[in-house]
Amino acid sequence: MSTKTAPFGTWESPITAESITKGSIRLADVIVDAATSTVYHIESRPSEAGRDVLVHTASGRDIVGPGWNVRTGVQEYGGAAAVHAGTAYFSHYKDGRLYAVNAGGGEPQAVTPESAVFRFADFEVHPMYHDLLVSVLEDHTDDTPAAVVTTLCIINTRTKSVHPLVAGADFYAAPRFSSDGSRIAWQQWFHPDMPWEGPRSIVSLANATCIAGKRGVLSCGYPSWASTGTLLFTSDVSGYQNPWKYSNGTAAPLFSAPIPEDFAEPAWLLGWSPFAMVDPEGRYGIFSAIRDGRNVAYLVDTQSQGAPQLLDTPYVEIRSVRCVSRAHAQAVFIGARADDKASIIQCKFVGSSGIAHARAEFSVLHATPTSVNFGPEIISPPRPISLKIPPSGAPLHVVYYAPRNPAYAGSSIKDERPPCVVSVHGGPTGFTSQGLSWEKQYFTSRGWGWLDVNYGGSSGYGRAYIERLIGKWGIVDVEDCINAAQALSSPAHALADPSRIVIRGTSSGGFTVLAALSIAPDVTVFAAGTSSYGVSDLRKLVEFTYKFESRYLDKLIGGTPTEVPEVYKARSPVFHADKITSPLLVNIYALRSQLKLTGMC
Questions:
Q1: Burial class (CB in 10 A: 0-12, 13-18, 19+), 335
Q2: Would you place residue 598 in the very low, low, confident or very high pLDDT band (cuts 50, 70, 90)?
Q3: Residue 391, preceding bond cis, omega within 30 degrees?
């Protein structure tokens, strides 16, 4: 045990900026070939100009060469690959076309016509007719947000032709064939809703049937077939995204009593899945949910209406849950621990008395390549805290990381409190994962505290918490960051020096930083700020953003720039820069194609 001391914020640390950025790779998605049970994943590689690469998980072999980018421009956030019977299908970001390639090796071949205006995403292969794919299609013939047309289409990979399937809604997502291919389900929604606000799930045999969701009121999402006649999805009827099923013409919740946890995250990305079935009959599934700002995993019996069985797992972040083999009760997902970066994780249910009584075993199929190799003793663990907002006592959810470095016993200054970074996530409808972040540990290992603020409007805490931000973006988020900073530095917590609290955020979080330093009632709470490609002029955001988010601010601000121009000006930090008194670093990037500058996520 070290006895060395030094003032907080001055500790020497082996975690350097170079060590945590060199060769960094992000796991973007995991994909399973249902015909062969082979697992693949998509890696985002900053060192290769930010391209996305489809990888054979077991061997680490790239499926496509350096010239290919497995990414789509649909909704700007994508969902770009599928694999069936050894053939991989992917969208190439450069030209928007869909390509097919032998996953064992070969050169990709285009399976859609050459087009400068079509974009494809979230595709699935028909279970019986393997040359047919269903896909979301964006038509950018007129590339203004209001004129971009989104539909569902069928792609015939043999004739290399595209055929319309469903049109009329503003957005579509998650088209999924039933196991016999006789029916298809999808999600659709209209402006000004976002996909977590009022989308509907549709099932079609001959005539489309709306099974759940109501515009602007109730949302549903992530439709997936448990069996030929049973469709699973999530719905926030209870105020939380809980799992439901549709069978024999009736939709019903899976649990007899709602669980106050979200079993799905906002669908910013196309193609993701928060659950997967793991038995041949389609009765049992592994589901992820969010509790206290971190993911948990459940085994769910979709037929009993009983309470789900909590699985013992070390992973605090679980996403892209896929079935590997129903016959062998195996699933796979991207999982991150509080003390380890994201990896591809396999879950297998082991036992002789059936899945309901089986033991869940987790193993790493593929670890994220990294040059960082520091021991667990330097890692500061996340500490979720629910604060109370005065004067109402409403909850405010934050996650605190204390200073930690095995080389130091503490501060050399008696009763000193550490400086603290207040971090604001993007979205704004999102939340901060508690999976290991070396960026946070860079600060905590130097004697700083770190505070992630899941302000009102964040996801993971139910619909009412998200709706706290309706009409109040730039107000509630700012107030919550200020309240969190003041609460953590108060005698009740004494976790931060109130004179040395700084704030930082990216994209929409960068907007909150700018607002906190320019339009907040007290712009002196934070000693300094960093805004990375933050929004400074809300009117310009509406003018230049893309279709998916083009009406997002209708609700966040309370109307359009034409309807409430005074609100847009009052909330835009660019018009209040003269009120900024704290040092401010503004990071501006010009690579829109890589960083999606006109979006807020």
A1: buried
A2: very low
A3: yes
